[in-house]
């Protein structure tokens, strides 16, 4: 599969890619992922779009706080709770 650049895209797909890049810059990850998927559904050979999609997915995954992160924060604050109770 030969890869294409963004400049080889038709105008409508180039506009979608540009909107997706702008959404990614504004940290609107869901909208950016949706736009990049629309471009790739019509023309999956665009390397820059696949790269931008992956970047948006990584940023979205890293932004959320998962259960493990919450548990670590709770475990780190436990000694301070005990210290506060002893002070009372």
Q: How do the helices and strands line up, and which of them pair or pack?
A:
Layout: H1 11-25, H2 29-42, H3 47-63, H4 67-87
Helix pairs in contact: 1-2, 2-3
The gist of it:
By secondary structure, the protein is mainly alpha-helical. The chain is built from four helices and no strands.
Write structural notes for this entry.
The protein is mainly α and 88 residues long. 76% of the residues lie in helices and 0% in strands. The chain has four helices and no strands. α1 packs antiparallel against α2 (29-42) and α2 (29-42) runs antiparallel to α3 (47-63).
The main sheet comes to: none
Enumerate the spans where pLDDT stays under 50 for 5 or more consecutive residues: none
The arrangement of helices and strands along the chain is: HHHH
Radius of gyration over alpha carbons? 21 Å
Write down the domain tally.
1
CA-based shape: rod-shaped
* Helix proportion range: over 70%
Strand content: under 5%
């Amino acid at each position: 599969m030969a890869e294409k650049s963004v400049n080889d895209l038709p105008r409508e797909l180039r506009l979608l890619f540009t909107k997706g890049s702008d959404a990614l810059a504004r940290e609107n990850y869901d909208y950016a992922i949706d736009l990049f998927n629309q471009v790739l559904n019509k023309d999956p050979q665009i390397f820059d779009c696949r790269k931008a999609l992956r970047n948006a997915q990584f940023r979205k995954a890293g932004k959320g706080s998962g259960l493990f992160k919450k548990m670590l924060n709770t475990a780190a604050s436990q000694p301070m709770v005990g210290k506060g109770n002893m002070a009372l």
